[in-house]
Every structure is written in C-alpha cells, then in structure tokens.
Amino acid sequence: MLLTNAVCATWFTFLVFAEPVERAHQLRIVEASQAVRVGMTPGEVRAVLGEPNVVYEERPAIILLLKGYRPKQWMYGPRLNLDYLIVPELPFANPLPINLRITEYADEDLVIDWSRNETVIAVKRPEFAVPEEADMMLEAVYPLSFVARSFMFADFSP
Known about the structure:
By secondary structure, the protein is α+β, with helices and mostly antiparallel strands.
C-alpha cells in the first residue's frame, strides 16, 4: 500500500509540473503561428510550426449530412489537461488527464484549415494565458531534453 501511494504521489506530482510546461510550449507555438498566412503550403507551415499533433481529414459525405462540412485540419495542442484531473463521477483522481481528440479539436488547440488544393484557408488561434513560472520551467526543460536525446540516440560503438 505504501509503495502504491508513493507511485501515485510521484505520478500526480509529475502531472502538476508537466501540464504547465506543455501549456507554455503551446503558447510559443501559437505565437509562432502568427507567421502562418492564408495560401501557405504544408511544407511552409511545417517549417514554421513543425509536425502537427493530429491531422483530421475532410469529413466524408455520410458525416457531412449529420455534422456539416469540415475541411482537412491540422491541430497543434497540449496532451495533458489538469481540468480532467478531478472528475466528479470518479471516487478517485483521474490518473490520465489527457485531451481526447477523437473527432474534434479542443478549445485550447491551434487549428489550421486546408483547402482541397493543400493551401491554408484559415488559422484558428486559441486565447489563453500561461504563468511566467511555467515559461521558466519550459526554459529549464529544453536543455535537459536535448541532453537526454543526445544520449538516447548517440552511437557509442567503438
């Protein structure tokens, strides 16, 4: 029982620190998206923002009748959401407070709409604030992630 409590405490502590860092990163992506203009190609958008988190294809005809038209969309957004940490219907804290984007994007997501000829037709930017501490934590994480990736993918063979 003691080990389980320690593991849970460690996990929830990680979530409490990771979510603000992820939101600070999202804010930087939203700020970088100011360079995305209508008419840009997928390659140009990738050069500015990187790969999207999720790609939604244009809605098929059968769903068009039920939910209306939606163009192809690229979504950039955070994976964690502490708003889902406490779910009133659960007798315990939610161990996986993640944004599930099965058919639609979340309110805090940056969304880019594409035309059928693969050019940007609209950019939907979310509005949210990030505490300064979260931005400072993100600055500390960048060098650590670089070092970790360097060791993980380094070739140590003689």
